[in-house]
Amino acid sequence: MVQSVSAPEETILDESTTVTIHVRNDGSTAVTRTLAIDVGQETYEREVTLEPDEEARIEIDHAFASTGSQEVAVEGHSQSVTVLAPDALVLPETLPERAPPGATLLVPVTTPTGEVVTDAIVAIDGEETTTGADGMARVELPETDGEYELSATKAGRDRMSQEIQVVEGQERLLGAELEVTPRTGTPQTTPELTVTLVNHWTADRTQDVSVVSPTGEQTRTVTLAPGESRTMQRTLGEEGSDQQIPSGEYEIAVTADGEPIATKTYEVLNGDIDFEEISEGAQYQSGAALGQVIENTLGNIQLLLATMVALAGLMTIGSTTAAFAQAVHARHEAIAIHRSTGARPTRVLKLVVLDAFRLAIPAALLAAVVALVTIHLLDALELLSVFGVRFATGSGPVLVFSTLIGAVGIAVCSAVLALVPALRSSPTAVWSGTSRAGSSSDPDDDRRPNERS
């Protein structure tokens, strides 16, 4: 039922935050369930009803009442949310994790709402600088390799810090923030990737930026001026395509000139269906997860059945036409008499079609009854199954009526096809049983059969 839980990684105290739960019914029957959704210290109950293969998103607006790490959880799916005070100091996630010695780094300090913070103190290795009117601090990195703490403080606010590693020979890489929505899904889910690139250096940077995901790698060349940012978006896979991601845990990475600058984990659930775990009453339905497994094993089962029905129809028309042709040949004298006494071909055709209707309707009804009884008997004996998966035997009135119409139509078409040669031939040819137009050159052939001796 529950496929994934999605919520912002960070939110603000007492502000409404939207939590999204993605639900889907992969079964063959309708499902109604009440979900208990834990959001921080509160629990919400939501009743959801889904038809087979239907999916939906449940949204809950919640305001967290305390700062710190909070959890959203439902049916084994969870996500952590960091709750910040409205005036908290924030260092951007796009700050590079590694930098060369002595480089100058542009460090913006903001609040969770995006407001710049002026006169904040940014410090590293005992050296301090303050943010200007634009909320930016120019930080000189240490000359010695090592791991350092970069911190931001201001009176009356909590201290914020971030680690940075100074490495000799390290390239000045663009900074990146990667968001994956949702963080968990199924093979049918198409998560959205949002990549934010920032140049935290004091000179223009041009680099080849790649997004590496389970569906492939996309690369583009990006040039950013000092302090400039750019956002890119990408959808993993297309719904219904062959790029669906199998179940498992994947790392999605953003690289600059081949070096990783941001990573996120994406988890795909319910990717595999074990036939041994399928319930005895499971039924095939195209589009559902079980239906997709069967189609992957046997191919498009609807196309297969349609082809079989078409071939069976053609064979039936052929055999029925042959039977009617024998009947027409056996009664060629009666047809010749009708033709010789002035009956037009359309009149003869009408008589034969009416006879075909009289024969086909009771025969089709009898065949339908026998077929329905046979199918239900096979179903009761559990013989309508493949790999332990039972095929549904539902036969609605539309299907039965369409089958009867088809059967009667085949009979009438067969009768018409069998009669066409007799209608196109002369009465004399029909009387002789040759059924060929112009089979005799005798000018008396157009006389009535009982006038010939």
Task: Characterize the structure shown.
By secondary structure, the protein is an alpha+beta fold. It contains six helices and 25 strands. The chain folds into four domains: 1-85, Immunoglobulins (Immunoglobulin-like, Sandwich), CATH 2.60.40.10; 98-166, Immunoglobulins (Immunoglobulin-like, Sandwich); 177-197 and 207-272, Immunoglobulin-like (Sandwich), CATH 2.60.40.1930; 297-451, no CATH class. The strands form seven sheets. A five-stranded mixed beta sheet has the order 2-8-7-4-5, with no helix packed on it. Strands 9-15-14-11-12 form a five-stranded mixed beta sheet, with no helix packed on it. The termini are far apart. The model is unreliable at 271-299 and 435-453 (pLDDT under 50).
Describe the biggest sheet? 5 strands, mixed
User: How much strand?
Assistant: 25-35%
DSSP helical segment count: 6
Total of domains: 4
Shape: elongated
SSE order and pairing:
Blueprint: E1 2-6, E2 10-12, E3 16-24, E4 31-39, E5 42-50, E6 55-63, E7 68-74, E8 77-84, E9 98-99, E10 104-108, E11 121-124, E12 127-130, E13 136-140, E14 146-153, E15 160-166, E16 175-181, E17 184-185, E18 192-198, E19 205-213, E20 216-224, E21 229-235, E22 248-256, E23 259-268, H1 289-298, H2 301-330, H3 332-340, H4 345-380, E24 385-386, E25 389-390, H5 397-424, H6 427-432
Parallel strand pairs: 2-8, 9-15, 17-23
Antiparallel strand pairs: 1-3, 3-6, 4-5, 4-7, 7-8, 10-13, 11-12, 11-14, 14-15, 16-18, 18-21, 19-20, 19-22, 22-23, 24-25
Helix pairs in contact: 2-5, 4-5
